[in-house]
Amino acid sequence: MEANSYFFRCSGGIDIKSDLTTHKSWDGEVVGFNMPDGTIVDLYVGLRVTLPDGAEKYIYSVDDMSKYGFDNFDYDELVFIAEKDENPNEND
After folding, report:
1. What is the rounded distance in angstroms from the CA atom of residue 76 to the CA atom of residue 6?
2. How many CA within 13 A on the CB side of residue 31?
3. Is beta strand 21-24 parallel, antiparallel or unpaired with respect to 30-34?
4. Residues 21, 34: contact at Cβ < 8 Å?
5. pTM surpassing 0.85?
6. Rounded to whole angstroms, how far apart are CA atoms 88 and 19?
7. How far is CA 42 from CA 39, 53, 65, 79, in A?
8. If you average pLDDT over residues 58-62, what whole number do you get?
9. Which pLDDT tens digit goes with each residue over 8-52?
10. Residue 1 has what pLDDT?
């Protein structure tokens, strides 16, 4: 299959409960947050599909992306960057 390669850029923000501790990568960057039950929540890249009737659905699996012609989906680890030192409960 012939394909064109595109890079992507994303920026944004999100408010996160202040009592959640950070989950860090091997180099100390914040890549997620630890939930009280031990679950880790982190960022991911997905695609939003807008159907002809205006309905939207979100796809995140490699198989579903491939169905729409998006293959070789690759990105570096996504990180959270605090606006200021806002996480006094950090323990990792």
Report:
1. 15
2. 10
3. antiparallel
4. yes
5. no
6. 8
7. 10, 31, 20, 8
8. 90
9. 888 889 999 989 999 999 988 999 999 999 999 998 888 999 999
10. 67
